[in-house]
Predict the structure.
Amino acid sequence: MISTVFSASVLAAPPLEVSAPTIEYGLLAPLFIIMGAACVSVLVEALVPRESRRGAQIGITVIGLLAALGSTLSSWSGARYQLVAEQAIALDAPSYATWTLLIVFSLGIVALFEERSGGTETAFVASASTVPGSKLEREAVAAHLQHTEVYPLMMFSVLGMMIFASSNELIVMFVALEIFSLPLYLLCAMARRRRLLSQEAAVKYFLLGALSSAIFLYGTALLYGASGSFSLGAIDAAVSAQPGSSKIVLAGMVMVSVGLLFKVGAVPFHNWVPDVYMGAPSPVTAFMSVATKIAGVVGLTRVLYVGLGGLRWDWQVMLAVVAVATIVVGSLVGLVETEMKRLLAYSSISHAGFILVAVTGAFTVQSGMAKGSFGSWSSVMVYLTGYALATIGMFVIIAMIRRAGGESTELASWAGLGRSHPWLGALVTLFMLSFAGIPLTAGFIGKLMVFTAGWRGGFAWLSLIGILFSLVAAYFYLRVIWVMFFRKPGHAAEDVAVAPLSIGGWIVLIVCALGTLVLGIVPQPLIEMFDNASTFLR
Amino acid sequence: MNPNDYLILSAILFAIGILGFLFRRNAIVAFMSVELMLNAVNLTMVTFSHVHGSLDGQIGAFFVMIVAAAEVVVGLAIIVTIFRSRRTTSVDDVNLMKY
Amino acid sequence: MSFPILTVLALLPVVAGVVVLLMKGRAARLTGMVVSLAVLALGIVAFVAAARGTDLTETHNWIPAIGAWYALGSDPLSMTMVLLTVALVPVVLGAEWHVGERTAGSGGLPTSVFFGLALILEGLALYCFVSVDVLLFYLFFEATLIPMYFLISGWGGPRRRQAAVKFLIYSLAGGLVMLFAVIGVGVHSGASGKSSFLLADLAKVSFDGSIGRYLFIGFFVAFAIKAPMVPVHTWLPDTAEQATPGASTLLVGILDKIGTFGMLRLCLGLFPQASAWATPVVLVLAVISILWGAAMAATSKDLMRLVSYTSVSHFGFMVLGIFAVTTSSITGSIFYMFNHGFSTAALFLVLGFLVHRRGTADINAFGGAQKTAPVLAGLFLVAGLATLGLPGMSSFVSEFLSLAGAWGRHPVYVAVATIGMVLAAVYVLRAYKRTMTGPVTDQVAEHVGKDATGREKLVLAPLIIVLLVFGFFPKPMLHVIEPAARATMSQVGATDPAPVVKEGVK
Amino acid sequence: MNAYVGLISMLIIATLFVCVMIGVNLIFSPNRKNLSKHQSYECGIEPTPQPVGGGRFPVKYYIVAMLFIVFDIEIVFLYPWAVSFNRFAALGVFAVVEMALFIAAVFVSYIYVYRRRGLDWD
Amino acid sequence: MSPLESALFGTDPWWITVIKVVVLFVILLMWTLFNVWFERRVLGRMQNRLGPIMNTAFIRGMGQAIGDGIKLIFKEVVTPKGADKIVFYLAPVISGIACFTSWAVIPLGGEVSMFGHQTRLQITDVPVAALFILSIAGIGIYGIVLAGWSSASTYSLLGSLRSSAQMISYEVAMGLSLAAVFMFSGSMATSDIVAAQAHPLVFGGFNSHIPGHYWLLLLPSFVIYVITMFGESNRTPFDMSECEQELVSGYSTEYSGFPYGMYYLAEYINMATLSAVCTTLFLGGYGAPWPFNLIGFLDSGWFGLVWFFLKTQLVIFFFVWVRASIPRITYETLMGLGWKVLIPVSLVWVLLLAFWRTAGAQGWLASPVFVGAVVVIVLGLIAFIMFGGSQEEPPEPEPVVFDAFAGGYPVPPMPGQTLPDSYDIVHSETAEAAPAGAAAGPPGEDAGPTATPKGAN
């Protein structure tokens, strides 16, 4: 028999002491589903003829996301919490909660990806490899080409975010960070219009992102050096065992935080945010501002609370300073912005600051949180939910307000739209009020909880600064309302039109608006949900 | 072997990477600086792996390598694209948004 | 469970307001008016029921995690304010029946929008007055800003938008400072996170020491901005100058009362110690408000600004009465809050009619209007007299009560404050003289040729009647209000000073 | 003695040899400059713009380089697995399934590139 | 023990190492001279001619090669104008160093006694020797790329790019083909691999005494390796990088004097290196072939050298043979072969091998279900290869919509051209991109201004 031939020819080597790792495939199903869907999407790109690709991609993406959602929810409701895949991934309630949020919002963003605003083309470039302004590009546009690769890219990104939010090991976290960042870099460069800006945004995002992840990685290596393991639990044990915090641990902590804060968009690691938000295609901006923020914040809390809980007194100070800087810069610079996407970028920066207030507070079960109340984590999640709803809603609206040559994002061109389209004005008003944290919107509940959590964690002064600067931030949100309703449409607003929206877009818009309202009035179920999900497995 | 030497070397490499990133205006050079930083991290990890007598650090280095490669692919794609449309890779020339 | 009358009372106008916003033209107006009258009826029913001792309280769990309750209460203080609110809104709607057409030239929005917003504002304000949960109160306190912002910026003078923004920024600033205090209350009401915002629960928590003071300051600043006190009053004159009279009436007559209401409810009620600590400063500010408002009113060249400055002065009286903390001073203040709503409404509206005719609010542009529009002039005079607190008008009763009550504790402040009363006579009468008496100028003859229309009379009549009735028979109202004052006194833990005045009681 | 001494001595000798030979060549070589000798070769006409400092080449080569990186990284993971494959008795099917999945994942992108004519050289 | 200190090679005294290095170095140089002669002669014979007239020089012309080399030293070194001088001279140095260094880990023979010391006929061995060879090959590519880049010549640049693209493409396939070897040997150390091949084949319990050389066991891998060998060495039929008709002399166009000689030398040494690696990994290295392995002394000690050089020379002969018989193929065929055939085939082969061995270890080969499944999979794969071969047609370019503003000012349509739908004309504000066919303000109640083509006014 040939098999014996083969085996006889093998060098007689001693067997390694390796046992097969236990991988809980059932529990990890959401990840596998998304990964599988993304791979199938790539195959569709390769094998399906061009004209039927679009439908196939949307189908696969939506079905994949829904299946992952169902699987996540079933695991969550079954409270199947454990450290899986050799402790590399923590499937705990926060993970499931974050996954749910990520998937739900991604579903909304799929609608944005597919939004054609009454025309025939999405916001994505016809052929990314052509040189802007070249004959090839014109041909690609004329041939109605379009990149349907954006769907698999988005799915890979979602996959990375899900792993990132639930990773219990720094190396896994780093890999996940890159899995979700790399597709985003590419997506950024794929705007159909203003392609030079888009490419520029991608280069900036990429270079700074790569720098920050390298810094994160160095921090990871230092923490590994200090503790002998990449696992958060082991790092925590090693850190707690030492009476004083060693320099190497502190350096590692700072560098890891830098990487995470970059993704969150906190000052002084915020430089990329406005440019990238402006340059990227709007659906991608929406995706970035919502999903990246959720994943980044959850990752940050997991690393800080689980892995570096013992260093609380050290990182709280650092984070407090960053939070103040973020709030101040985000609010003040936002005041002078006149471009909607940049404005939303600064808004996103200041929101990151408000979120950091709660993260800094670190009011958790460990620091004496009572059952039935809420701590830092759940407050942050409620805040993020409200923020995400308003952000996605705003981006749907940005996709609607158009002029020849694409979206019209100059604030001045929005003048008077509130009057000619009262419902549009009402929706923008609602979202802006939610951003500003005016009561009866989701934004208010979020702000209330975030500042309460910060205060309970012993950072009353930080909450005060946050509150004072939310007034400043409120000013620029209100200015949008003001422009829409009361400013006379000037030269800039000529030939600005409100495009019709697809059904998917409408659904997303309405869900966002209703969600913002409902969450502002009856937030209890959501708070309870996140509250029950706020205990990290360690 | 004295692990400190390796750690210091990797720290120096890392610092060179950061400085290169900050002070060189060419996107490709900046990007190569980042790659240098990643490799410095690899050295750190492998050194610590030796210190702790565990394989974790070496496996980590493997992952870093693969990520670095993926980053190269994506990053160079972006840089090449912008080079093709702008004919420059200087980060200072990439300034449409600074107004 | 009994009929949730308070919820219906507050929610009806909000819902109706939204409906009206969606409607157009005459139907919208009629609907708005009918609803406001229905709310008035409902409000009176609720007021009477509460006065008879029926418990209208509603308490439901709202956000247990935060400790917030959907809790509405019907104590006399609340109900007085409710009565004021429900009474003023129909009047304002009547007065602004044509606001859309009137201001269409300057980019005004349709009338239906005004009606809708006014109703929404009414509902939110009602919620504010009846809620007995700090967070709920805060929620509506902030929410009122939105309709008010649109009410100001939608109709009126050419710089109304800037005025509206100024209003909004001031109010938001106050609101956010208050948010800080609200969060603080929440944090400190529960040691390990199980907090409650219910007033009844908070009464059991003691906010002593510096934290109480900080929180007090937070609330007080918000309320001081709302009830415009010097030095944070500057938004009011600008706003009143630019806004349409109806909006000004709603703003000064109802919305600003939330400020004084909040001082009574939250500042005194929750932080007695801190209140005592802050009293000297507050009183000084109150007296300054009285004098500054009066002085500015006396020198004002714009009728609307004048009215707004009188309000600044009057709010000073109210604050003085509140922080004097005697039964009669507080009673006086509450009654003043009630009266001031009507008197200032009368003044705003009647001047609004005049100004609309003349086309400008400049005092010097008038002269001799008495002869061309005698009815309006008469109404102006009555409203003005009510404002300056002539005996026989209800304002007199309240002003007297609050000053008399405060005399027992702070004679010096009261003495100074009386100067404000004198000045009040000066500015009202001087304004009347400059505008109404004297030779009829050409412009006045041309523009103010038409006397009050039936609608205008119909609108102003109830206001004048209320002012006169309670001027001569204040007993029924005082009967209702006094328990409120006593309740506040017991909350604060203060007793009325002995009849024999002793210097430096405090 | 370290196993790498042999390697290093080989390296040194090779370096010495190469440098010495080129050095000798530079010393003994005649030096008869003329202009056209120093121009880069292009059939005798004025050369086209030069690659040093701004020259460009087809982007196709870039794609090859990227593909190379992808597959080289695959090899990075394949080798340790292959070397230890004999000793994976305890892993059984896991070892092979795991690598199959890995290769399949790479194959997905390979198929994409293939079908999108990324491997064609035209 | 640190893996850096190998038990086998840590024991040599330093002088033995030096001797081995120097001797090997000299052998390599001599052997290159021989190979130059060998190639010319063999080619001559195969083409039924004498070959270049150099019979007179020394031992049937072998001296000619030496003469050529020495002559180069006295030739003028021309540095092209505009070249990057440092890199220009660095490039041949890199190539030269790289071609020698790989030999440090190639085993030339087994254990012998040298001056009273037991030592192996191999300079050193490390656990990752095969990786070392691959990485040195990678460094060799730098020599070529830098040469092309620094020469400031279009031919050089294109030649170097071509050859480096080709080399890295074939390096992937080569690397993949080696994976199968490592799977069988369980080691990357070259000496272990040779030792593993000495194990005789056993057919169902019958010891055939035929050594299990991997060319036999891993035939597909061997074939792939041999093909990639040609790609790696830039030799016919894969010598696109220096095909005279297109690129003059490729990356070395601008080189003269000894730097040019360096490339010449490197090419021949590389050929020898690749043959040696082939010998080591697939042909049983210094082990004696069947039936000589049955005679003990022929398969031990210094006899290893004989077998090794014989086998290597055989592979070099194969190189020459191919050069004589197969014409150069086109570049796209070359790259297509590498990427579309060699890489997938070697990946699939490695996987199949792994499956096969796992199945054997698990005892599944007896199960007909499994065998059936395997057949299905194999058929499926074949089907895929057929199916995957069909490529997507390039998109049918739609008739270009007439753009009335193409030149910046409106022009009327020519006969046969039609004005597009109104919202297909869009004029971007940005000057750099003015594409047609983008959807902007769609028709609707609010889209008044955009709905009218601007050409109307």
Q: What stands out?
A: Chains C and D do not touch (no CB pair under 8 Å).
